[in-house]
Amino acid sequence: MAPDISLPSTDRLDLEVPAPELLVLSLSALLWLVLLQGWLPGLGSPPAGLEAPMGAPGVPEAIAAANGLGGVAAYLLLWGTMMLAMMLPSLLPVVRTVREEVCASRSVFGSAIVAFLGAYGLAWTLVGAVPLVVAVLVPIRELLTASAFGVSVAVIVVSGLLAFAGVYQQTALKRDLLARCGRCHSVPHRPKSARMARDGLSYAANCIGCTWPLFALMVALGSMNVLVMVGLTLVVSIERLAPDETAAARALGVVLLGAAVFTLLFGVPAV
User: Fold this and answer.
1) pTM, whole model, 2 decimals?
2) Beta carbons of 153 and 232 less than 8 angstroms apart
3) 3 state DSSP class of 119
């Protein structure tokens, strides 16, 4: 008897949802492309006397503050896009958990992830208001280009933030928040979008608490500095994806403390 080589009927074909890793990394790559190509609205015209590149410390904040609500809105959009591009790779375990626990239906998974990431990205976008408020109260650019008693203020600020971030990496609070960032709450089989949005906000709050010293350091080094962005993306991803997240966080803390000493001895690049 000839073997049966007939194809299965189309109503039995099960088109798999794309792997979570592919979805997340593709979205991150797209957001990086948007940032690097400058496809987002500009912040506006720089204030008089400001002649520094966008990647220099305090420059984007000064431009946004000088252009009213339009500049603030453009800055928050840029900040939120940047944060999501940087943080998405570290979300791989969480997105995978959601994929495993929700119904295999593409529509259920898609709406759940959109709600989760949308709320997560919104929380990070709102955090962008903090450096703007700081820039209004204390002009970051002017501060970091000044000197006090013959010592560059930039050296003092950057080395201090590096040391603080390094110490924070060793604390119990950091370990607790990092552990929360490494796991996801149990998800219902068919979760409602509102539930996933709440989970996204909760998860973002843990992530913000876990990493805020690093992003304070980023503002001091240049919030739109591509090299700083790439470096922090690697740091956050390593400590979230490492087999032993606590050991990775502590090791990175030691590196940050070493960088603080190096900065005190040799200074920081011209700002």
Assistant:
1) 0.87
2) no
3) helix
